[in-house]
Structure formats: C-alpha cells, structure tokens
C-alpha cells in the first residue's frame, strides 16, 4: 500500500461514514453518486480492507471502518483548524462542540440562550454521539464525554457532579410504581447494579429490566409509566422532567461519574473556542 492517501478519498469517506449514504455524501460534496462509489472502492483497495457493508438501502461501516472514521475525522479537523489559524481565519469559523446526546438534550440546550445573549457573534455547531470510546481522539473543538475524568493527557473540565435519583411517571400512584420494572440505560457503568449495592437494596435487581441505549429514550419510557429510571441530578431541573417525572421516594446514590468537557489541543488558541470554554466553566456543576 502506498503511504500517500488522496485527501479527496478521505473527505469522501468521512462524509459517507457520517451520513451512512453514498447518495447523501454525493449531495453534500457536490459529486455524483458514481464518483463517491468510485472513491470508496479505490480507498478500500488502497488500504486492503473493507470499510463499508453495502446494503439494499444504504451502507454500514464495518468495525474497522468505524475505527478508521474516528481517526480520519480527527485528522481532517486538525487540518482544517491549522488552515484557519495559520491564515488568520480562525476567529471567523463556528465553534465545533461535540456532545453526548443526552447531555446536549437535558443540560446544554436549555442553557444555550444564555450563551448567545452573552456572545451573539459566536456561532456554535453542535454534533452528537450517544456514546464515545474511552480512548478515541477528541472530536471537534470541545468534546463533551461521559466518564470518570480519566484522560490525563487532555485539558479537561468537569461539568456535572451527580446523584442518581429513582423516578417514575408523575401520573402514577407511588405505591403502584414500586412494582414497575427497572429501566436500564446501557453505557452507564453506574446504573442499577451499582445503585443497588451503594444503597444496600440488592433486592431491586430481582425486578424485570427494560434496556435502552440513551437516557432521552429511557426518561420518555418512564414518563409513559413503563418503569423506574435513575435520573441524574444535573438533569432534574429540565422542564420536561419536572412536568413528567416524580421521585419514587428512594434514597439518592452519589456517583463519581459525570460529564466532562475536553479541549482539542489544536483549538486552544482560538478566541471563539476560549469563550465557549470559559462559559462552560462558569456554569459547570
């Protein structure tokens, strides 16, 4: 394999991977679908691996393709930032804030109006993922991740300090709600098993469990009376939660896990990024 990978192939790959469609990638890049397909076949031949599974109605990244997507997006972002910053264009671009989806929905978006009131000239571009791999590169200018803050080589800022509060639909009788199954959010290390141990209520684990991969769906399920969900104290002031959920009356469990902002090293000198970072620091916890 040649060491030189054409940049056009990489940008095409990043678009196709993000959009899960050669057709949509072609539209975004102002290419024909045939050209996108040709680029991707050439890239796969170049690396000697299959990056996409071709399906009847779209495409899907292979496991290797997913790992490659992370590296390619980080490299392209670094290249774009270098271009902006080196040629004096850095303060003209939008700040790319890559967020965990639940954090954005329950915590960030309700506060964005305050940010724009303070900095009306700063544009924030939000991108989302449900979960991130622990050791993957920082995405965007600022990357909000969930975890224990175990990123020693990164410039990090803790945004939330949480307790986990069992909650159920506000329209339910609490006595009835005690009989509901547990709603387990996949991806949180500190979920129902951890809560049961911390509060010495191991009998909870005898209940049926309903599983989902994000708290937006989990809280909505609880709001429909489908189960008991652990709500993070940093999310509890959201209007929807106050209107649709109620505490079950069980003790809260303090968790060391939380949401952290990670600052991309290539963005540290950007004035617009610095404004977003300082704003996050001012409202954290």
Task: Tag the structure with descriptive keywords.
285 residues; 3 domains; alpha/beta; D-Maltodextrin-Binding Protein, domain 2; 5-stranded mixed sheet; 6-stranded mixed sheet
Explained architecture:
The protein is α/β, with parallel strands linked by helices. It has three domains: 7-85, Arc Repressor Mutant, subunit A (Orthogonal Bundle); 94-160 and 258-283, D-Maltodextrin-Binding Protein, domain 2; 163-254, 3-Layer(aba) Sandwich (D-Maltodextrin-Binding Protein, domain 2), CATH 3.40.190. It contains ten helices and 13 strands. Strands 7, 8, 9, 10, 11 and 12 form a six-stranded mixed β-sheet that branches. A five-stranded mixed β-sheet has the order 4-3-5-13-6. The model has no long low-confidence stretch (mean pLDDT 90).
CATH arch. level architecture of the largest domain = 3-Layer(aba) Sandwich
Classify the oligomer: single chain
Task: Calculate the mean pLDDT score and round it.
Answer: 90
What is the CATH top level name of the largest domain? Alpha Beta
Gap from first CA to last CA: 49 Å
Number of separate structural domains? 3
- Give a count of the beta strands, DSSP E runs of length 2 or more: 13
- Low-pLDDT regions: none
Helix share of residues?
A: 40-55%
Summarize the structure in short.
Helix content is 41%, strand content 21%. It has helices at residues 7-19, 22-29, 33-47, 63-86, 101-118, 174-177, 192-198, 215-223, 239-244, 271-283; strands at 52-55, 58-61, 95-100, 124-129, 142-147, 155-158, 163-169, 182-185, 209-212, 228-232, 245-247, 253-254, 258-263.
């Amino acid at each position: 394999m040649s060491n030189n990978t054409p940049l056009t192939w990489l940008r095409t790959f990043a678009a196709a991977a993000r959009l899960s469609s050669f057709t949509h990638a072609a539209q975004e890049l102002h290419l024909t679908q045939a050209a996108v397909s040709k680029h991707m076949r050439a890239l796969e031949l170049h690396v000697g691996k299959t990056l996409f599974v071709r399906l009847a109605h779209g495409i899907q990244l292979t496991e290797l393709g997913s790992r490659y997507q992370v590296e390619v997006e980080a490299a392209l972002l670094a290249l774009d930032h270098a271009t902006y910053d080196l040629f004096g264009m850095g303060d003209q671009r939008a700040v790319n804030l890559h967020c965990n989806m639940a954090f954005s929905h329950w915590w960030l978006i309700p506060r964005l109006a305050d940010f724009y009131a303070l900095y009306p000239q700063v544009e924030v571009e939000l991108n989302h993922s449900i979960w991130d791999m622990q050791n993957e590169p920082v995405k965007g200018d600022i990357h909000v991740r969930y975890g224990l803050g175990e990123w020693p080589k990164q410039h990090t800022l803790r945004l939330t300090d949480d307790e986990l509060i069992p909650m159920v639909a506000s329209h339910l009788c609490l006595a009835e709600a005690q009989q509901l199954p547990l709603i387990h959010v996949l991806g949180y290390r500190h979920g129902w098993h951890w809560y049961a141990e911390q509060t010495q209520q191991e009998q909870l684990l005898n209940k049926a469990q309903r599983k989902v991969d994000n708290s937006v769906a989990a809280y909505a399920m609880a709001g429909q009376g489908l189960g008991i969900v652990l709500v993070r104290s940093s999310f509890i002031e959201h209007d929807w939660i106050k209107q649709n959920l109620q505490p079950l009356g069980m003790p809260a469990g303090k968790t060391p896990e939380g949401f952290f902002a990670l600052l991309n090293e290539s963005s540290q000198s950007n004035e617009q990024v610095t404004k977003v970072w300082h704003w996050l620091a001012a409202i954290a916890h």
